[in-house]
What does this fold into?
Amino acid sequence: MKFVDFVSRDAIRTSIDVDDKEQVIRSMASALLEAGKIVEDEHEGIVEAILKREELGSTGIGRGVAVPHTKHPSVSELIGTVAVSEVGVDFDSLDGEKVHLLFLLVSPPDRPGDHLRALENISRQLRDETFCRFLKQSKTPSDVWQLLEEADNNQFV
Amino acid sequence: MPVTEKTVVISNPQGLHARPAELFARLALQFDSEIEVIRESHRVDAKSILHVLTLGATQGTELTLQAHGDDAEAALEALARLVESDFATDETMSQESSG
It folds into this structure.
């Protein structure tokens, strides 16, 4: 699965200026709402579900990256967005590092395969240090989108 | 020092997603041995969630665990038990739902 298959271009945010886990997740979900990917009535429920999932264990997967996510019946296909935080967010990651790059995913409950393939793609691409560093240095959503497209075209790995 | 090896199969219908990958890496970190997980020709560090997730291991996937070090056998036994229990720890038993 490619980034462009699940990342909502209009919901990408750079210059996220909050350093708190809940606020970051909230603002990413709001970005999905603004992009028309989730509906207003489900917004709070999705935020709550993602936060509840974080209570089970942090989705900070190391190297300054986190993948907050949930399944939710209101979406019919996997949707996602990306946020870049220059200051970093305390995410209780296993390696103790602050998170600068977040991929938020919302998937239909009956599509575990798509969710797994998105995670596989994100983690495989981010193993490349150059790609990871460039993404964290992105200043605008269009920088992020361009990097994602380049990664999809296997320009990094 | 010889390399210890064990094969496991992912039985979880959701596959080796973020939560099991975290539990797996967290457990692997408790051992001093170098531990790797191998899926076909793809070999990754068992102590990194990022690495473990790159396996994209769906239900039914066979993984080979290899360890090298003083506590290699104990490490593989513990990791295999975690996988075979379908990642059922005391924590996850009560809260199974949200991936």
Remarks:
- Chain A has one domain: 3-152.
- The mean pLDDT of chain A is 95.
- Residues 80 and 105 of chain A are 4 Å apart (CA to CA).
